[in-house]
Prior knowledge:
Layout: E1 4-9, E2 15-21, E3 24-31, H1 44-66, E4 75-81, H2 85-102, E5 106-110, H3 111-117, E6 130-135, E7 140-147, E8 150-156, H4 162-172, H5 180-187, H6 210-226, H7 230-261, E9 265-269, H8 276-289, E10 292-294, H9 306-318
Parallel strand pairs: 1-4, 4-5, 6-9, 9-10
Antiparallel strand pairs: 1-2, 2-3, 6-7, 7-8
Zinc ion binds next to helix 3.
Amino acid sequence: MNTIILAIESSCDDTAAAVMKNGKVLSNIVAGQLVHEKYGGVVPELASREHQKNIVETVDLALKQSNINLNELTAIAFTQSPGLIGSLMVGASFAKSLAQSLNIPLIAVEHMQAHVLAHFINEPKPSFPFLCLTVSGGHTQLVVMRDYFKSEITGKTLDDAAGEAFDKAAKILGLRYPGGPLIDKYAENGNSKMFQFAKPNIPNLDYSFSGLKTSYLYFVRDELKKDSNFIQNNLHDLCASIQQSIVDHLMKKLLLASKQTGIKQIALAGGVSANSGLRNAVEQSGLDLGWKTFIPAIEYCTDNAAMIAMAAHFKYLAGDFASLDCTPSAR
Ligand code: KG4
Ligand code: ZN
């Protein structure tokens, strides 16, 4: 029998829907929300309202592109946690109603787990155990994956997430939200050694980005006092230098984790894994150290519903279904 899953992702500011048949992606639609750009970050209330506006059309489009009818679906999946509670509620309510009306199982998926399981969408797929650096706007974790749903977090951020560090650095430069992709773009033509900032010094496999951000903020503020055009005149070098600092910190702990665990299958996941500096650094370390590296296609790095469908596919096979009275959770 075929397994055909419609998955919905609405944890933050992207409304996404995907259809997956027997583990293969048939469609993967993401509707972004430009409304947050001018606020410098996601406004939760606005995000919920935008999800309400976009969800029907997004699901419709995912079904149309996949050439699958509602009555062919065998399960409905949704992101249960973590995320903005109002945003999660929109996806959860929609998924539950649909599952009930079609009388098919409901599958609840954890967003961070789905980011990691995105590695099973395309070849080459990692085998267990593998080490995954999961870096998004809300999380930064080093995870040892022992099985699809069996993992150990060996390190995590003690303050800001890596994506937040990118977005805050961008905000300091007056760039719009989300700033991570813009820093990446401007960094391409910049000198990453031009400016130096305080290096985080955190024990074990944990991360910290708040000191780096403060160091960057004070540096830019002091330079602006001397030259009001400092940012415009140095934008590319400023972006390249902060990107290098963030990537160096991420890589330092990833290298240590690989050394400590002896695991040489190394994966990247989450929105920040779209960053070209980080992708290059992991690939280079892979060549230097004999790692087998797994870096997802960009469309599966940032938030998407195909990864929710992938996690749901494995849950479906394991018979792990949610009840209709389950509720989303922010954490
Ligand atoms: O995984 P994701 O799409 O959403 C969350 O679950 O948070 O990650 C979003 C984060 C944002 O902070 C965004 O600025 C960052 O990923 N990001 C990037 C790049 N693309 C997305 N950061 C640096 N370079 C990029 N190319
Ligand atoms: Zn995410």
